[in-house]
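Try this one yourself first.
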């Protein structure tokens, strides 16, 4: 068994352990999309390896659609993290806040899309270029979400023992490693060093699984209330939204309104 096979099966073992800990901690109650994503990752890795070994000609098609599905899952997970962070004040937020959080994540992805094209090697064409562009966009998006949560952790009253920051940290670490490997690849041609970078990326994925396993094996600390500054900001935002709705409801019917020409 070569090193690549060892890394693959160590990663799969890590995914199995993480999935088991997610079920044990009943994480589906607060992060259902992430739990589904963890199971999806495990199943897709096993199916992908089987297809590569038995039906290698079909692996390219599988990988293309698997990457698209993976991106959709990641978008759902990132939106879920943003909404879960707001748990302590959800009741005071205006209706539709959850959709706004997901929309903001999607808009951030759209803003990152043209930036991700800068790192794409000019030699890539067709589906390969699309996949590369998609993967880099979500890698950058995951890093951005991690940095936002980490930088505003004090205002959001979350720490390294909170599940949201643990999940974001794992995603952020692997994404940073992925971006570094991509930058180095863009200045390389195929060589033994090229493959060693891919192996290093696989090792970083194993490190992510290890970090999540250790994190999820410990009990989550009780969620703290938001800082006074954040509570005040959210109350102002919520009050402004409610005031706008009340003002709209108080407007007279359309026929009796004065028209401004």
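Now uncover the answer:
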């Amino acid at each position: 068994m070569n090193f690549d096979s060892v890394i693959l099966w160590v990663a799969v073992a890590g995914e199995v352990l993480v999935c088991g800990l997610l079920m044990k901690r009943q994480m589906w109650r607060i992060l259902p999309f992430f739990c589904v994503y963890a199971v999806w990752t495990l199943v897709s890795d096993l199916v992908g390896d089987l297809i590569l070994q038995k039906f290698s000609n079909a692996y390219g098609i599988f990988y293309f659609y698997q990457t698209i599905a993976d991106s959709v899952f990641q978008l759902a997970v990132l939106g879920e993290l943003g909404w879960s962070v707001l748990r302590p004040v959800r009741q005071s937020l205006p209706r539709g806040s959850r959709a706004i959080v997901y929309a903001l994540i999607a808009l951030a992805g759209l803003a990152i899309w043209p930036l991700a094209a800068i790192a794409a090697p000019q030699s890539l064409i067709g589906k390969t270029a699309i996949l590369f562009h998609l993967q880099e966009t979500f890698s950058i998006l995951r890093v951005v979400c991690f940095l936002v949560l980490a930088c505003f952790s004090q205002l959001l009253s979350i720490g390294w023992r909170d599940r949201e920051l643990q999940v974001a940290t794992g995603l952020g670490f692997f994404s940073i490693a992925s971006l570094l490997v991509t930058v180095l690849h863009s200045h390389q041609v195929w060589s033994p060093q090229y493959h060693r970078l891919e192996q290093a990326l696989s090792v970083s994925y194993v490190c992510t699984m290890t970090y999540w396993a250790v994190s999820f094996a410990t009990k989550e600390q009780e969620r703290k209330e938001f800082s006074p500054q954040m509570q005040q900001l959210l109350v102002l935002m919520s009050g402004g939204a409610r005031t706008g709705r009340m003002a709209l409801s108080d407007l007279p019917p359309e026929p009796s309104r004065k028209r401004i020409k």
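Discussion: The longest helix spans residues 59-85. Residues 174 and 205 are 6 Å apart (CA to CA).
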